[in-house]
Write a structure and sequence with these properties.
- It is a single chain.
- By secondary structure, this protein is mainly alpha-helical.
- Helices cover 47% and strands 9% of the residues.
- The longest helix is centred in the first third of the chain and has 20 residues.
- It is globular, with a radius of gyration of 14 Å.
Amino acid sequence: MDPISPLEQALHAARALVLADLVAGRVAEADVVSLVEDSITQRRWWVEQWPEGAGYVAGLVAQDVQDALLERYGRWPLCPVCGTGEPHALDVEPELGPDPHWVCGEAGVKVAAVGALGEAIGGQASS
């Protein structure tokens, strides 16, 4: 069996992290998981063109899925930090960089690493 390439490792890790957040938010329905797969397909091409960007894939996939969910269903993930005011979604920061986090732009705080949203919203923590 051939070892898994760094590209595939990055894509599998990104898939797992975003799926963990979707499961924590209880929105991991089949059609939503398909959005993750669509993003992975697109990002595979992107990383093939720019291999140095492999470390950025998790944040990009999270943003892709967030954007697709906004178009189809509404904001996700909703901020668990702000208890008052209009419900608002978290943002992924950095937009293009390693170690992506879900951030509340209104409160200016990191809420959770991508893949660890369950810890912040009271869902199951990833193990």
